[in-house]
Amino acid sequence: MGMVKDGHALGFHNYRGDFNLILRAAMRLEPDRTGGCFCAADVTTGVPIALGICGEVLEEKHPKYVAFAQEKPRRLATHPDHLTSQESSDSAKEMYPGAIRTPEYLLAFSGFSGEMDEAMMIEYALMRHMITYGEAEEIARRSRNGKWQTLRQEILNLKSAVPSRDPI
Fold this sequence. Notes:
This protein is of the alpha+beta class. The chain contains six helices and four strands. Strands 2-1-4-3 form a four-stranded antiparallel beta sheet, with helices on both faces.
């Protein structure tokens, strides 16, 4: 299982810790969604380096989310001038948004709306210092992603929330 070993060596085994807050915020914004599939891929080839399920995914949706999470970076790799898979999306061909380009990796998620999948990847890349805030803004601008700033605000809301003192 080279993919798991390589992903571990690159630190993607820790993505769940960083990703948990992003996932919780996305679930608050799109409450009918509960999880999906994350993929980090080679920036040149789009070949997966790390792949994993985040949150809760219904068994019948699992194969679809895994397939889309791998298709998005593979497609983005074939368009080196694109920053996101939104730029080559075509819903009639089941080619959806949700992947972004960073200098070192292509990051993708599948499980929420395409725009939210992409917003989650922008925020993840920013949190992991893979891109700057200015680069995040450029990615969102080029793909006309209106959900990224909303997601950022929801993350701030979660961070500032005071835990309940009510007994469970």
